[in-house]
User: What shape does this take?
Amino acid sequence: MSDDRLDDGLNAYADNVRRTVHPAGGADVRRRSRQRKQRRAYAAAFGVVLLGSLGLGVAVSRQAPDRPADPLPSASASAPALPLPTGSAAPPPSTPPTATTPTAATPSRTSSTPSRPADPPPADLTSDVSQLRQLGIDIGPGVLVDVADDGVDRWMQIGEDGVDFTGTTKTDTTMMSFKPAPVSARTQATRNRVIIQPPFWNEDAEGPGYCVADTPGAALSLELCDAGRPAQVWTVVPAGDSGQFELRGRHGILRVDDGVLTTGTSGRTGLQTIPFAE
Assistant: This one.
């Protein structure tokens, strides 16, 4: 209430008191005056607080943008449900989307991803010897390895001191066999490679068998076959289209001088195969 109405009420109350009771003493009057002042101060403070609260509310309401409330989704706004076949179960409620955890970016296929190592070559991969077969060089069956165009029979032979070209008759020691050599890949560089095996020494042999190997000296040697040993791999070098060829080993092309292998520049290099059965 206002201060004027409060004063009027207090004055009326004081007049009534004066008519009904004895006048109060000075101390009592001063006490009542202090009480009236306190009540007025409390009323004024309360009014200030009330007016401040109302002003703050009005300011906030003016600053807030006029934004219509989002309408609640209604059943009519959703897509119409399709009729279910008779006797079928109602579809399960849709699964709410789950929060996904961000993951590191997956590298694209064009990034520097380590390439897949090449597959190892098959264990039975051998040299391409198709050209040798076309030229009439016998691959596989037992043959005589003869020095060509020397006018005499000088065949590769296994002897006590190694392998040379001193053979003159068909025996187990002069029967040889050319077989395609194992290679890591079939390329131009690995074609026409063979290993030389004497069939008689390999008929009952346990394990890899025996192969003719090149040596730095004059005579060749007969060794246990080892696919990883370069000295046992020979390259058949065609010499024209007549079936003649040269044998190139680890230490060079074989040269035969009067049935003996040489390490110099003399001697014949042309060789040929003759079927052993003839």
The chain has two domains: 3-61, 130-275.
